[in-house]
Amino acid sequence: FSNTLGNDQFTVEFKEKDGTTNIIKSRPNMITNDPSKAVPGCNLIIFTVPAFAHEGYFKAIAPYIEPNTVVVGLPSQPGFQFQCCDLLGIGGKTCAIVSFESLPWACRIQKFAREVQVLGPKDTLACAIINRGCRPHFPILPTIQYIIGKEPKLTLAANYLSINLLADSVVHPPMMYGTWKDWDGKPLSEKPLFYQGLNEFAADMLDKVSTELFNTAQAIQKKYPEMDMSDVIHLFDWYKLNYRESISDFSTLQTAMRTC
């Protein structure tokens, strides 16, 4: 990344909801694969890597993380909180853990380490905060909101379990299976679309998975009334809540995802 960027600035093409585009040019203060240089002195650490990479990064930063650090999963995906508690060691025992349900934007890499396109922010984005005795140096949610920008509007979920049960965290497996289950192994004539190419079979699988997660949340709340699981909603409702200004066809889950 560092060699590719060189001394140039990184370019972000940000597409606003009104159709306008803003060009933002900047560059990271530090680019390094050495946690001993990057972590000491940090009181806010944001994970923006895929879930499979979380464990490696937790282990890498554990020797250098300082008390009262705020660790953010953006997104966290199910299990982020448990890995954080398990792998950060002594320094992590007073860390606050912030788990977001999804990414704040849809993004596309245009040129590696040089240019990225942001297709637009979500309307809202929920998170759960586990303080674990942390005494942060700043108000957690307002600070993250300042870093992300005015949109999406960040909200606080009732508990971390609801973040883990939100259907957005399990969207990709049904979509991948629905897209490729009948593939004959031969090259395709053109690149398949992912969300915009959602077929009826995959949409039906998504609906069933989402319904099962919603029913699970309802069963938890029925057995433990003190657990507020109202943040767990069906994926279709989640799309209508987070992309209401971007979707052009709200008829079904499939059309909502294809026209978002």
Automatic annotation (TrEMBL):
Domain (Opine dehydrogenase) ranges: 158-259
Database matches in SUPFAM superfamilies: 6-phosphogluconate dehydrogenase C-terminal domain-like, NAD(P)-binding Rossmann-fold domains
Residue ranges crossing the lipid bilayer per the database entry: none
A Pfam family the protein falls into: Octopine_DH
Gene3D superfamilies (UniProt xref): N-(1-d-carboxylethyl)-l-norvaline Dehydrogenase, domain 2, NAD(P)-binding Rossmann-like Domain
GO molecular function, one term: oxidoreductase activity
Protein's name in the database: Octopine dehydrogenase
Source organism of this protein record: Cistopus sp. JMS-2004
Gene coding for it: ODH
